């Protein structure tokens, strides 16, 4: 029996392991478009698009065919040394051309965590090349999620990602994030709030010593920490501060990349001017594991010189530049372009707003925020004071469980924010159905 086998042999990700021994797995058996079904045949409307990643939904024939074609032509080729393959070359070229700011080179890996890990290593390599080896520290933001390798989990600032692991590693710092719901002081405008956050970053850099800081990393819209869209002036002000000290800016576009906020990149929606960009997830609509790191010319030239003196750029993975993953990513990008899906995501912003904003009247809902197809509905203990529920009350999880019972898949991110981040192919009818099911679930939990 599959359920017993899962409990006996499968070490699950991101779950209470002990609880899983009695809960057992939800076995997903298939799906089509924005729906998946479990092994009993029950259907769920997936408003989280897998993990903010399944942007073309399930059952896309073109992606299946692109993979099959590439498997038959060339199932694998490594990229160490001077090796390459056609889909890898075409994908690196396509990404450099799509980049929101001029980028020079792309390196492929298999996951968002690896891309962020690589970005940090390249920042270190860059500063060593420039004879500033003291620049080791990386500044991320409170509540950030950047992945689960030892480095990516150190960039992350979510308590359960550190507890028990002895993380973060030394040298990873976290400054306040642009939480426009609870962050601004009484009477403070969003622009003033953004200025204050930039000042906090500046003060942190001066306290630590600019000569010790390598890079700053941020998601254009913070995802797993609670879906926080920044004030428009936030990233330009952050860039000003970083420029003052020559610090590199890494944009983690793992969620935002490829249309999620209604532009190709979250950096375009929010005026981010990064030196490096990481992306994954929707890059292949998560049909196969692939991520991309892009670096600009300034970084490339510096690390190229260093690799020349060392003799080799000592970084890369067996599956970095897997031809089948690259072929599927290329086909995904073609579909986004041919079906104008990025514009579609921008257009659906108004639809999401129309269906979700009325939830603000619900006694449990404190805030509804988002952009494009990246929205969050925050449940609170007290609407007036914005007081959060105690984590132990698990209200977010109770709402998402109630949704699940009703056939709606969402997830409480940051503990209490219900994620509405569907595939780019979602219809208005599906958004409306989902909003109705969420309302019913909130009524039930209330
Ligand atoms: N960065 C962000 C913003 C993410 O949301 C995630 C995953 O959710 C990651 C990085 C890590 O990606 P992966 O799970 O592919 O390692």
Automatic annotation (TrEMBL):
Q: Which residues form a coiled coil?
A: none
Which GO MF term does the entry hold, naming one?
transaminase activity
- SUPFAM superfamilies attached to this UniProt entry: PLP-dependent transferases (SSF53383)
Keyword annotations for this protein, in alphabetical order, are: Aminotransferase, Pyridoxal phosphate, Transferase
**To which species is this protein native?**
Aquamicrobium soli
The record's section on Pfam families has: Aminotran_3
Matches recorded under InterPro entries: Aminotrans_3, Aminotrans_3_PPA_site, PyrdxlP-dep_Trfase, PyrdxlP-dep_Trfase_major, PyrdxlP-dep_Trfase_small
The answer to whether UniProt assigns keyword Transport to this entry is: no
Q: Which Gene3D superfamilies match?
A: Aspartate Aminotransferase, domain 1, Type I PLP-dependent aspartate aminotransferase-like (Major domain)
Q: Which family does it belong to?
A: Belongs to the class-III pyridoxal-phosphate-dependent aminotransferase family.
Name assigned to this protein = Aminotransferase
Cofactors named for this entry:
pyridoxal 5'-phosphate
NCBIfam families per the UniProt record, alphabetical: PRK06105.1
């Amino acid at each position: 029996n599959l359920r017993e086998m899962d409990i006996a042999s499968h070490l699950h990700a991101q779950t209470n392991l002990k609880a899983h021994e009695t809960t057992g797995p939800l076995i997903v058996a298939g799906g089509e478009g924005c729906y998946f079904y479990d092994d009993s045949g029950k259907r769920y409307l997936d408003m989280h698009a897998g993990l903010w990643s399944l942007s073309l939904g399930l059952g896309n024939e073109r992606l299946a065919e692109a993979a099959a074609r590439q498997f038959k032509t060339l199932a694998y080729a490594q990229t160490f040394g001077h090796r390459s393959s056609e889909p890898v070359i075409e994908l690196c070229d396509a990404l450099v051309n799509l980049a929101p700011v001029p980028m020079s080179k792309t390196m492929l890996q298999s996951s968002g965590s690896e891309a962020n890990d690589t970005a940090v290593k390249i920042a270190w390599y860059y500063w060593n090349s420039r004879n500033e080896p003291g620049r080791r520290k990386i500044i991320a933001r409170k509540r950030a999620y950047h992945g689960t390798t030892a480095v990516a989990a150190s960039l992350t600032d979510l308590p359960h990602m550190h507890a028990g692991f002895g993380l973060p590693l030394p040298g990873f710092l976290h400054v306040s994030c642009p939480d426009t719901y609870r962050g601004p002081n009484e009477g403070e405008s969003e622009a003033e709030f953004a200025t204050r956050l930039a000042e906090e970053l500046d003060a942190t850099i001066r306290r630590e010593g600019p000569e010790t800081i390598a890079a700053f990393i941020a998601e254009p819209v913070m995802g797993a920490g609670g879906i926080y869209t920044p004030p428009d002036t936030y990233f330009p002000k952050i860039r000003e501060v970083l420029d003052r000290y020559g610090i590199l800016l890494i944009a983690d576009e793992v969620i935002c990349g490829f249309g999620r906020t209604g532009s190709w990149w979250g950096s375009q929606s929010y005026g981010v001017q990064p030196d490096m960009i990481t992306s994954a997830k929707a890059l292949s609509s998560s049909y196969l594991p692939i991520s991309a790191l892009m670096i600009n010319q300034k970084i490339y030239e510096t690390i190229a010189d260093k690799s020349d003196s060392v003799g080799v750029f000592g970084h890369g993975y067996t599956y970095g530049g897997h031809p089948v993953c690259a072929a599927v990513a290329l086909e995904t990008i073609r579909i986004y372009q041919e079906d104008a899906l990025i514009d579609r995501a921008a257009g659906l912003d108004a639809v999401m707003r129309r269906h979700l904003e009325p939830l603000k009247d619900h006694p449990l809902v404190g805030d509804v925020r988002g952009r494009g197809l990246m929205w969050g509905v925050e449940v609170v203990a007290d609407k007036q004071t914005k007081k959060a529920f105690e984590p132990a009350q698990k209200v977010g999880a109770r709402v998402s469980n109630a949704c699940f019972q009703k056939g709606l898949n969402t997830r409480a991110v940051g503990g209490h924010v219900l994620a509405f981040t569907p595939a780019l192919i979602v219809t208005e009818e599906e958004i409306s159905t989902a909003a109705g099911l969420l309302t019913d679930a909130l009524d039930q939990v209330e």
